Amino acid sequence: MIEAVGLTKRYGDKTAVHNLSFQVRPGAVTGFLGPNGSGKSTTMRMILGLDNPTAGTVTIGGYPYRKLPNAARQVGALLDAKAVHGGRHARNHLLCLAQLSGIPARRVDEVLGVVGLQDVARKRSKGFSLGMGQRLGIAAALLGDPQVLLFDEPVNGLDPEGILWVRNLMKSLAAEGRTVFVSSHLMSEMALTADHLIVIGRGQLLSDMSVTDFISANSADFARVRTPHTDPALREKLTSALTEAGGHVLPEQDGALRVTGLPLPRISDLAHECDVRLWELSPHQASLEEAYMRMTQGAVDYRSTVDQKAGLQQPLPPGVQPPMPVPGQGQPGWYAPPPPQQGYAPPQPFQTPPAASYGAYGAPGAPGAAPAPGGANPYAAPAQAPAAQTPAAPSATPAPAPAPAPDAAPTKSEDAR
Amino acid sequence: MSTPQPQSPQAAPAWQAAPGPSYAPAGPGYTSPIPIVPTHLGHAVASEWTKIRSVRSTMWTLGVFVLLVVGIGLLAGAVVSSSTSEGDLGDQTALSFGFFGILLGSMCIITLGVLTTASEYGTGMIRTTMVACPSRGRVLAAKAVVFFAVAFVVTLLSAGFVAVVHVGMLDQARRPTGEEWLKATVGVSLYVALLGLLSLAVGSIIRHSAGAITIMIGVLLAPLVIAIFMFSSSLEKLREALFQYSIPNQLGVFYAASLSESGPSGWDPLWIALGVTAVVLGAAFALLEKRDV
């Protein structure tokens, strides 16, 4: 059992972790998710007593880590795979850790076998690949056969077989009644491994719930509707009809429409009424990855922008279209599907014909250019987003602060078309 | 203990068994079948001994150290014995020619001392160590004990060997007394090992190998070099003090080959080194407890 209460860490004037409170229970795999730089590793380091919290406490089994008797026998951790002396061979690395906590030396050979490094036990870890380094780190974590296990990005650099192995290892460790706390920035990985999710962004708690709850609270069902390519006017017609009927329509990259708030038969009826043929009408569920992206988009610190190559481009020959930007590049909010609650969405008429409006290879999502209604663009005022999505009110009510975000997103998406 | 045979090798990693219903029924919590022992400094010392003997930098620095001390010592002995005749050496003992080798070799001990602590910060190993043993003071204490023992033994063996060879080689010099023997072997070894311990503490404070080694080489050489270039007569006193308390001069005291007549004598350099090392090591302990790893 890991318990954090009001955990805060500041480095100078930068707050890495702010007022984080959570519990990690035994017998389950708890995923710890957040974008790069969101404070996952800092939190892990505070749990392990490497960093002293600026405020708050974190305990394992009721003790602060540094007060635990024979900590290595109660807690095992993989912090980063490169935290070894490269000149020492794998077996000696584990041996010195075993001796430090009074673990018999034969246990070293056991864990080397468990992680599959027995053949390179006498090779210096300098020559290890990233995946082998991860395995060595996992071996070190398992060495003390501990009750509590922490893994920071354990699947980094592992091959598919290794990823599967780690996934099963975590599950079986949890099934034995241990506490397993795994950080990752890959939602898809966590969806397969974890039972419980703790999501943080910019050092603050965004969500703390079970994976099934997370899925039902965050994944939005939608219908994909495709009208004939040959006649864009039909698309406009259908869009306004659907919007009038209370649906929410988002255009997709390839010209299809993403409709939420209306059941499939109703969409079909509406299309029939306004005399629009449909080429596609299919039910979809937004992936967990998308739900996670939406939740954390306001909390992403490091985001790419479109590579403008300003001044370096040759003038295009007349009649040549500029290349289509790759979706998702430098377009904050592109990813975001509509949140589950759609009742408030104002009708959004389409005025942008496809493939006409991106001027000079435009970066519609570039911070300066983004049309930010009332400064509520998640990129411009990110601090508001986490506050609104506390676990207390996951999805039941339309959250006030992120509400304009979906508005901003479709607008940008249109530009990107 | 939930498992009846805690020592059974099969019992230890239950997850080695293929996935399936073979796990123990999952209750809240898990108890390891491997007995948990209370740990103490002895465990940390064993661990540090494994660490120090399992990296090549230890072998390299100590190898070069032995090479310098023995090689230069023998060379000096050979040159002196072939070029001097009866009475040339005056009151000098044969032991004093071990000085040059030890002076150069001390740089290797400094390097090893710094690497013992600072290299863990460079590689990130320190995080793994501190997670395995959150009693940070115990880790540093174990490092200090292991390193001091290694440095002392290696210096004693090489300095002792050179001393014995010199005394056998240079029979025209004065026979050394018992205390002179003690100073030129045990005394100088303690001093060099303390110098290494000081470097270890500096390495733990600076946390950067190259930086800490530079500082320690500076401590070793700077006072002497600065003193050489102090021509002004108004600085005469300072110049004299820098000479007398520079590490090469203090090392020379053990061989009665001091560069100046006043200043530290007898066993003084050892007490000075002990005091300085204790203070810096104390600071290293305090900082280690306080800082983030």
Question: Can you walk me through this structure?
Answer:
The complex is a heterodimer of chains A (417) and B (293). In chain A, the strands form three sheets. Chain A has a six-stranded mixed sheet, sandwiched between helices. Chain A has a four-stranded antiparallel sheet with strand order 11-12-10-13. Chain A has a three-stranded antiparallel sheet with strand order 2-1-4, covered by helices on one side. The longest helix of chain A is centred in the middle third of the chain and has 16 residues, at 160-175. Chain A has two domains: 2-217, P-loop containing nucleotide triphosphate hydrolases (Rossmann fold, 3-Layer(aba) Sandwich), CATH 3.40.50.300; 221-305 and 326-416, no CATH class. With 417 residues, chain A is of the alpha/beta class. Chain A is built from 13 helices and 13 strands. Mean pLDDT of chain A is 78; it is low at 330-336 and 340-417. Helix content of chain A is 30%, strand content 19%. Chain A has helices at 40-47, 71-74, 90-100, 106-114, 130-142, 160-175, 187-193, 211-218, 232-244, 264-273, 288-296, 384-388, 404-416; strands at residues 2-11, 14-24, 28-33, 55-60, 75-78, 148-152, 179-184, 196-201, 204-210, 221-226, 248-251, 257-260, 280-285. With 293 residues, chain B is an all-alpha fold. Chain B has ten helices and no strands. The longest helix of chain B has 34 residues, at 136-169. Residues 1-27 of chain B have low confidence and may be disordered. Chains A and B meet through helix 2, helix 3, helix 4 and helix 6 of A and helix 1, helix 3 and helix 4 of B.
